């Protein structure tokens, strides 16, 4: 990158209301990939001149061969990264990589309804003087360590920070069964068996991508979660071919996460503590639905988070969203709700413990009122990315706890 304060802008046409809102004569919030009205009704959201894309419509021949560097679509969530010295790609397999002004979720914003929104992508070329290693140490090392443990956590505990332990208690779809088995193989990988294990990954991934697209909510979620696990294991592995193949899969992960959004109901911070009844039995009955919804919410957010981490380690120049992608996102910050292992435990936690809704990475309310035991691993990972590890340690220390 060359030192420059110039900002390049590319203009784009103004967006119009989707077909469903236009036919119903309702105001469209123009959110991508689907407006809020269509998402809540689980109906196709089609904007003029824009057609939805399915996974099986994509060319899957890239799975076994490296492709051009991954460039996310403008429909994807774009997090803001500081511009960095031109140091080239960083070795993902180095467990000692250690991050500053990296703020991947500060741009994850929801824009209110508008009928006339220009879409501009801003590329900043300003050089930062902060070393890359300092940025990693401060903002990303916590996440990298957590990612390295995710396959083992999935096998030994049936969970990850974005996949609830009870999500698949009623049965695990085959897509996730295959990913689960690959996680077990990955844990046992060594120099001798690595080629066989990585070849098994490629076979399972090819099967996943060539299978018919399911509209079942749990199948859709398991599809995205399986892709996330495959990407983690291959991106953070020292094998160059595995990493190149994983890069080719980034557009598929992005599209899978975008498709999952249509299955999600996002909580409103205004009514966070009143969305469920106060009596215990109705809350108990809502637990299974909450487990699915919260896992889906976290999976979508984490998918784009992983994509952005990879972009950073690849040394890509920052593409800063101008704040007009219109994507809505929120999730529950509550270790008590997330760690509940039964409907009764969930209902008790809902009634007796305060819980917080984080909307578009705004942790201000939680930081004012939450206690350390309210924050689970997912919350810690995002907090460290937003604030920096020392700031989060200070917050925990001020409340008598350790990060």
From TrEMBL:
The keyword Zinc applies. It comes from the Eukaryota. One of its GO terms (biological process) is positive regulation of metabolic process. CDD domains: GAL4. Keywords: DNA-binding, Metal-binding, Nucleus, Transcription, Transcription regulation, Zinc. InterPro entries: Zn2-C6_fun-type_DNA-bd_sf (IPR036864), Zn2Cys6_DnaBD (IPR001138). The keyword Transferase does not apply. Residues 17-47 form the Zn(2)-C6 fungal-type domain. GO terms for molecular function: DNA binding; DNA-binding transcription factor activity, RNA polymerase II-specific; zinc ion binding. This is Zn(2)-C6 fungal-type domain-containing protein. It comes from Aspergillus nanangensis.
